[in-house]
Amino acid sequence: MIKVNCMRKKKRQASLIDGNHLLYRLFTHLLETKDAVAQQIAMKIIVEMSIWLPLELYKECPVMLPWAVRNPDCRKHTKDGVSYPENWGAPNENGYQMDDNTLIKGIPRSLKVTGRNSGSHLIGKRIGKSFVASHIWREIENDENLASRIPELNSFVPNLVWLPTQISKLSDIEDGVIQDMLKHATWEIYRSAPVNPKFKEHTEAIWSKLEPDIQRFKSFKKFDPKDLLFFESNEKFVEKRLKITRGALSFIESCLNGSPTTKPKMTGRYAKGLPQLPKTTLAKLLTTVGKYVNEKPSS
Q1: Which of 195, 216, 233 is the last residue of a domain?
Q2: 230 with 51: CB under 8 angstroms?
Q3: Which residues are 91's β-sheet partners?
Q4: Domain co-membership, 44 together with 175
Q5: Which helix (H) or strand (E) segment is 132 a member of?
Q6: Which domain holds residue 194?
């Protein structure tokens, strides 16, 4: 007797799609041509949805976290079958505090959004969920490292903008129209803005890494910075940022001197790990971080 297999094959279930991804797909399609229409759409998106750090902060604290560098692998993860422990906030081999963007994204959360477009629903509000601190430059000419992996570019004020999550994803498309227009916008906002004389030489060195891209934007319609949205600055906010940088510099110096501060306002992993690094590493770190720390604001 021949046995007949009466079991029916299970139907393969359709895969799920996240509705949030639809907006990203739509804009990717609309903007892929990079023509005049795409540029107009991109400009509208940036004017309506991007939020920029205040010029007062750029003047006094152009590199907000000069001792920190981005390292997405610092969180607990598994790669190629190997498990890696949680290492966020610890120093890397050069003494820089490893971060996954956590240290940066919360910096302006206490600040209201301001701008001259009274019709914007963002005016007077503070950012909540689904906003991302986005790095404008990803790749740098003649540098194999991504911009966020370079300490002075990771928290360089003109290299940061806060965007809704799906728009931030568009800004990650290398040479895409959103990324290009953001580069154009930040150039118009900050390139000629005043900066504390102490930092002038160092900010010029940073800008020199970014300038090769700018020649491509001469044909773009210029942004008027007054049309854009900014986080509203105040003296208390700027002074807080200055105090944090001074504290970090002081802690690095105390480690170099062999008597680390007992309760530094740093992550536990950084406070524990930094004093264990070689003195030559600490000395180099102190010099580099010191370039972007000033005791007194300029008048």
Answers
A1: 233
A2: yes
A3: 97
A4: yes
A5: strand 131-135
A6: 31-64+107-233
247 Rama class: left (phi>0) / alpha (psi -120 to 50) / beta: alpha
pTM: 0.89
Both 229 and 114 in one domain: the answer is: yes
Contact 108, 61 (CB under 8 A): no
70-76: long-range pairs with CB below 8 Å, 24+: 70/98, 70/99, 70/100, 70/101, 70/135, 70/146, 70/148, 70/149, 70/154, 71/98, 71/99, 71/100, 71/149, 72/100, 74/98, 74/99, 74/100, 75/100
Q: Which tokens hold the place of 159?
A: 């290299």
Model pLDDT for residues 276-286, shown as the tens digit of each residue: 999 999 999 99
Q: What is the pLDDT of residues 229-255, one digit of tens each?
A: 999 988 999 999 999 999 999 999 999
- 125 found inside a domain: yes
| Same domain assignment for residues 181 and 54 | yes
In a domain? residue 137: yes
Instruction: Give the other-Cβ count within 10 Å of 126's Cβ.
Output: 14
Same domain, 85 and 114: no
Q: Do 114 and 190 sit in the same domain of this protein? A: yes
Three-state DSSP class for 10?
coil
| Residue 282 structure tokens | 């600490």
12 in a structural domain:
no
CA distances from 277 to 95, 108, 249, 271, 283 (A): 7, 32, 16, 11, 10
d(CA 86, CA 97) in angstroms, rounded, equals: 14
